Amino acid sequence: MPSSSKLRHAVPVSNGAPAALPADALFEVLLRLPAKDLCRLRAVCRSWRALTYDPHFAAEHKSRHADPLFAFTFRDRDSGDRGVAVVGLSGQVLRRIRISSDCIELLRTHLDRLCVIRKCKPSLAAWVLNPATAVAIALPGLQSDEFLGICIEHRFHWGSAFTHNCKTVTYAFGQVTSTGYYKVLRISHPDHPQPKLCADIITLDGSSQGRWRRKQNPPRNLKRNEIEIMECLAVNGVVYVFFDYDVMEPTSMAPFDLDTEKWMPTLRGPEPLRSADFRVYGRKLALANLNDSLVIIDNDVGVSFDLWFLMDHNRGLWVKKYRLSITQNCFYVLPLLILDDGRIVIFERVERLLQCYDPTTHSLTDVLDIKAMGLAESQSIGVYTGSLLV
């Protein structure tokens, strides 16, 4: 419990009038309220506003309200506006941030910021969101000499495929551990006649959104899906991208260090998987971030759903910690985080369900129906680790 002297400093009294409650008592009472209510109570008086904006109070409040927060895209049924909503595991919508765009997707992150991208014509765009302040910073667009050319985007409408003259781009969003700066890595890949990949990066240092800077070209033979998008994931300041296991050793990855802004030597996957055949139907690989650990999902659909944790990057040491009794394809089932009681929170992308998997009983329980809440317009999700009071 903070000292009363600190609390008196954090809760000034106007015009010399005595406070209705002692500072210690007010501090304790307000700590019990959820962040959404506290944001409204800031309008009551200047002293309450000062207290709820105090960093010490915000940190103490987050420690008391440790329930995980998730971010989903939404489309308002009445106005048609789109944006991002922050939701607690209890189902309460705590914050809505509107984005002036359509077809938005959230990058998978475990940070106190969120990154949203738009993938349709007339141009690709990206925003970095601070849910605490509801501020969205638009990143500079794609018009630059380094990225002139033709790329392809596949969209499906009424069963027909359309191609557009626009860039196909993969984004990854992470934070540098040493400085705390946020960075966005952008990999641009043209259509197959022009196979060379390009990479650039932008730094957000808190004062501005910065500018895109061209970096070393990515390694060749990175894995792309059927619409030319790569699966990128940033964990602890490093972006990981699978190599194409048709031409490279399965589970091998190209790491990119967000601090040095350089591609690192190839990271090999778990030894038992290096000779596995992932070209067969039903055997899938995916990446996940579970409590700040890089995880490879080895999903032999209908047979096994194994989670391999990277324990030591330099040594390439992996440990299989979980085998889940899940029969769905890992493309549709995404592990998000591990709760204090050992349960694993999972996002089921098809039905837009948040579920909890209990490793001790091998049971899967539905927790939140995101689609019924009208939030999950897309299949993307982010884990928000910050406080909404900052």
TrEMBL record:
**Residue ranges of every copy of the F-box domain listed in the record:** 15-61
Q: Please report the name of this protein according to its UniProt entry.
A: F-box domain-containing protein
Fetch the PROSITE patterns from UniProt: FBOX
Pfam families reported in the protein's UniProt record: F-box-like, FBA_3
Provide the taxonomic classification: Eukaryota, Viridiplantae, Streptophyta, Embryophyta, Tracheophyta
Q: Which source organism? A: Urochloa decumbens
| Family annotation (SUPFAM superfamilies) | F-box domain (SSF81383), Galactose oxidase, central domain (SSF50965)
